[in-house]
Amino acid sequence: MNPFTDYATYETRRQFFSRGKNALGMAALATLLGNDAFAEPEHPAKVALQFAPKAKRVIYLHMVGGPSQMDLFDYKPEMEKWYDKDLPDSVRQGQRLTTMTSKQTRFPIAPSKYKFAQFGSNGMWMNSELLPWFSKCVDDVAFIRSMFTEAINHEPAITMMQTGNQLAGRPCIGSWLSYGLGSANQDLPTFVVLVAEPTNREQIQAISGKLWTSGFLPGQHSGVAFRSKGDPILYINNPPGVSADVRRNTLDGIKALNEQNATLVGDPDIHTRIAQYEMAFRMQASVPELTDFSKEPASTYEMYGPDSRKPGTFANTVLLARRLAERGVRFVQIYHNNWDHHSNVGGRMPDQCRDIDQPCHALLQDLKSRGLLDDTLVLWGGEFGRTIYSQGGLSKSNYGRDHHPRCFTMWAAGGGIKGGVVYGATDDFSYNIIENPVHVRDLHATLLQLLGFDHRRLSFKWQGLDARLTGVVPANIVKGILA
């Protein structure tokens, strides 16, 4: 960040004059550097970009629970021959199991019960039975079949996926982008979180607000969660009898008190609080317009499907994400729950796919038609994958799958991504990676590069260290998916 701007912003009058030895030096420095010393950088980014950005914004669709890769995108026809046979020890290699299956006496192979077919110019194999709409998009999408993570349980795995660390308290991806890119719309938050309601609610995972906290970054970079029903933000509307003028006068009074406090104690968080109050006031005008879908044509609802008219559904939430993106919001995070398929894959997977199939297709086509897909990165995936062996009972029509961090599939589109690509490969059991492994850190580093940042240089001083999203373990750019 610009150190002169920070100094000028947070140095109080009392602090300035108490440091008289610095006064002449600062004056001399300003004379030497001219007006540029305290000027805001021309680029709207808060941190200097290291690359020409391919993407300006991100829509991240997180499937909470861990989608089954071999039932969706990682086709394993050889498993038909292995039905109800035990997973070989040579495949498992003593790898860690969760407590939910570690007591099983055997690990019977459960081939996918769903039909697969090839799509697109490169013949991408994927579930043709449950994803008929999305299968039309494969030439716009890069599939990463070789994702992996060390976390085997939901809480550390989803925390790792969102913050780059299994331990809570770190800034999430959206907060890093808010810190690095700054705002493109002063009337809306830089980072918005939406939680969609799944049709099927058999096994809902807890989604904690800590997943969109700014951690050790300034509080202004936290995600703003919109509610799925009713007012998108509590108290966004003034109560009866309180006019906009009264609200403005109230905020002016609070601001004056906060500025007095800032002068006394010099705490930069007070400036964050002032900025958040002002953002909330501006949002009272911008959010109602944003969430008013009445001017969307009938063709939009036909594109996104009938559920797009129902507040809180995945289809409605994705349509709102498009509206946020076209208004300059940098990062939109959508969570869709109930992908934790420990049982009843045959009963639950159709509902899950029905929720996302047409809306994901519509989102990509809608962004493309508006000229937004070229600079909007769309990312889809969960926190880990599922096991080829069945958890619990096994039949030809139904089975369950346990957590599997060793390999899973994610996809990306737009914003500098090469469409029609399949990157990485797993063995016949979709249990181990045999080609081009991609760690969560590698995905984060690639995402940052598409947005113009060298992941090693986007950092924040914390506890004496230059902390960053990708941490200290080396991370690699996934060049095979870049346009």
Features:
483 residues; alpha/beta; Alkaline Phosphatase, subunit A; 2 domains; 17 strands; 16% strand; globular
**What's the CATH H-level homologous superfamily of the largest domain?**
Alkaline Phosphatase, subunit A
Euclidean distance between termini CA atoms: 30 Å
Alpha-beta classification:
alpha/beta
**CATH architecture designation of the largest domain:** 3-Layer(aba) Sandwich
| Main sheet record | 9 strands, mixed
Can you walk through the features of this model?
The protein is an alpha/beta fold and 483 residues long. It folds into two domains: 36 residues, no CATH class; 367 residues, Alkaline Phosphatase, subunit A (3-Layer(aba) Sandwich). Helices cover 31% and strands 16% of the residues. It contains twelve helices and 17 strands. Strands 1, 4, 5, 6, 7, 8, 11, 12 and 15 form a nine-stranded mixed beta sheet that branches. Strands 2-3 form a two-stranded antiparallel sheet. A hairpin with a 6-residue loop joins strand 13 and strand 14. The chain is globular and about 75 Å long. The chain starts with a helix and ends in a 16-residue tail after the last strand.
Short précis:
The chain is α/β, with parallel strands linked by helices and 483 residues long. The chain is 31% helix and 16% strand. Helix 7 (244-265) runs antiparallel to helix 8 and helix 10 packs parallel to helix 11 (345-369).
